[in-house]
């Protein structure tokens, strides 16, 4: 099996250091997973507001937030107000086409815990985007998933954040998370030194993000914030992958069926064609009602013009 290693691009979003793995040098999405940011881990000083992402729109995608540690308040143009905490998923669906769209804000909340509050002024989160199949008419929505299937295999804890997964022991797990194409997402956490074998779906493309620690597989070592990518053709005859790691190593295993449509990204927009990206920039910057209003006094971000010669 050929595994390609994608390296992160360092950036910053809303005051937090980010390792961006997707999009990555013209590489296509992994299934419908088209964007992948690892935010943090970061600690905030007492006078630091933490994550502050102002009002901005999305189109033709779902934002999928997987919280490893910390708390973020999500507010959107549907009126949703939801704090996401450790081991939870927030899923916001923008809907498809020029009549749909959504806007939201994200900001740190520092909960007043009985123990040292300083210990809770931090963030460690994975944010992914899932491109929507544009041949379906999909409505905007927001869902919060506080409880997800969780189990252990040997020394490894697994949490199924989306999709169905059959473990090597044959047990089937099903996450409640809303999907519009076939996807899987599993948080893999080594509680002790050990190994685990993960099943692969033959029709899927797969990826593994090293969130913390170091991973060994098939004689190669992978470091924190590297993304292993293996496509359908790389997997012929391969139905599983063995992963070896030390205590504390954490991974995000993703996979999915490729969409039938093209996936173009510009700023916070996804579309299957350039004209629709252009129109979404115009609509957002002119306050079009398709993006609604967020009940927030946070800054409203401005969409940059699509560059001439944009190819996606
Ligand atoms: Mn967003």
From TrEMBL:
Cofactor binding remark: Binds 1 Fe cation per subunit.
Binding site residues for Fe cation: 56, 58, 104, 106
SUPFAM superfamilies named among the record's database cross-references: RmlC-like cupins
Coiled coil regions in record: none
Ranges of residues in domain Pirin N-terminal: 23-130
Keywords recorded for this protein, A-Z: Iron, Metal-binding
Cofactor(s) listed: Fe cation
Annotated Pfam families: Pirin (PF02678), Pirin_C (PF05726)
Keyword Magnesium: no
GO molecular function: metal ion binding
Gene3D superfamilies: Jelly Rolls
Annotated Pirin C-terminal domain residues: 187-288
Lineage top rank: taxon: Bacteria
Family recorded in the similarity comment: Belongs to the pirin family.
The protein's name: Quercetin 2,3-dioxygenase
């Amino acid at each position: 099996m050929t595994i390609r290693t994608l390296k992160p691009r360092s950036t910053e979003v809303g005051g937090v250091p980010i390792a961006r793995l997707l999009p990555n040098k013209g590489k296509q999405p992994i299934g419908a997973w088209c964007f992948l940011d690892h935010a943090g881990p970061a600690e905030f000083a007492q006078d630091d507001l933490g994550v502050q992402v102002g009002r901005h729109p999305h189109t033709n995608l779902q934002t999928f937030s997987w919280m490893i540690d910390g708390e973020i308040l999500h507010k959107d143009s549907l009126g949703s107000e939801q704090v996401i905490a450790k081991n939870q998923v927030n899923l916001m669906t923008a809907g498809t086409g020029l009549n749909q769209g959504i806007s939201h804000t994200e900001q740190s909340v520092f909960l007043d815990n009985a123990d040292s509050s300083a210990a809770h002024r931090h963030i460690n989160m994975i944010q992914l985007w899932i491109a929507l199949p544009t041949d379906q008419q999909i409505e905007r929505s927001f869902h919060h998933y506080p409880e997800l299937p969780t189990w252990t295999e040997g020394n490894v804890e697994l949490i199924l954040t989306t999709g169905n997964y059959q473990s090597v022991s044959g047990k089937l797990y099903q996450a409640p998370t809303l999907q519009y194409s076939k996807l899987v997402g599993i948080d893999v956490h080594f509680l002790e030194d050990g190994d685990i074998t993960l099943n692969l779906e033959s029709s899927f493309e797969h990826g593994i993000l090293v969130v913390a620690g170091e991973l060994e597989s098939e004689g190669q070592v992978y470091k924190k914030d590297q993304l292993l990518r293996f496509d359908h053709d790389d997997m012929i005859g391969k139905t599983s992958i063995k992963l070896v790691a030390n205590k504390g190593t954490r991974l995000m295993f993703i996979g999915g069926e490729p969409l039938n449509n093209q996936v173009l990204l510009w700023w916070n927009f996804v579309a299957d064609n350039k004209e629709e990206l252009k129109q979404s920039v115009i609509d957002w910057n002119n306050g079009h009602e398709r993006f609604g209003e967020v009940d927030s006094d946070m800054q409203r971000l401005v969409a940059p013009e699509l560059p001439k010669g944009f190819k996606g």
